[in-house]
Automatic annotation (TrEMBL):
Keywords: Signal. This is LTD domain-containing protein. SUPFAM superfamilies: Lamin A/C globular tail domain (SSF74853). It comes from Actinomadura rubteroloni. Gene3D superfamilies: Lamin Tail domain. Residues 1-24 form the signal peptide.
Length: 144
């Protein structure tokens, strides 16, 4: 949400000249990352699914996410197939396995992706970075 506010402020007129942001904010953004699943890191599917990234569609219009991807600094990448995220709705991408729904997607990994001691999540589309979210050590999740 803060990115939309920043883009709106950048577009405010200054001395009769409109300032246009160099890069418009993506409608789909990383909202929260839960990088340290609750309890011990046992690599059980329950523990793996306790690690997730929440994406939020800030627009009122549905967005097709085919070609969008999430990745970490190491390069582990989740790529969306045919999937539509409705307007003003979220989708959670879990690290482990499960049944994909309109609000929950599953990476199908058997090991953790997001580092508890610090990492960076990238939301990309066709090779271009749309949004990022970083964190350091401490805590278990971060709002982006």
């Amino acid at each position: 949400m803060k990115k939309l506010l920043g883009a709106a402020v950048a577009a405010v007129a200054t001395v009769g000249v409109w300032a246009v942001p160099a890069e418009a904010a993506s409608a789909v953004q990383i909202y929260r990352v839960y990088y340290d699943s609750p309890g011990k890191d046992t690599r059980s599917n329950t523990s793996l699914n306790g690690e997730w990234v929440q994406l939020f569609n800030t627009s009122r219009t549905s967005r097709q996410l085919r070609g969008y991807s999430l990745r970490d600094r190491t390069g582990y990448t989740y790529t969306f197939g045919t999937f539509t995220l409705k307007g003003r709705k979220s989708v959670y991408v879990h690290t482990g396995s499960g049944t994909n729904t309109a609000t929950q997607r599953y990476w199908g990994r058997r090991s953790y992706v997001w580092n508890n001691t610090g990492d960076k999540a990238y939301l990309r589309y066709n090779g271009s970075t749309l949004d990022t979210c970083s964190w350091g050590s401490g805590g278990s999740s971060t709002y982006c």
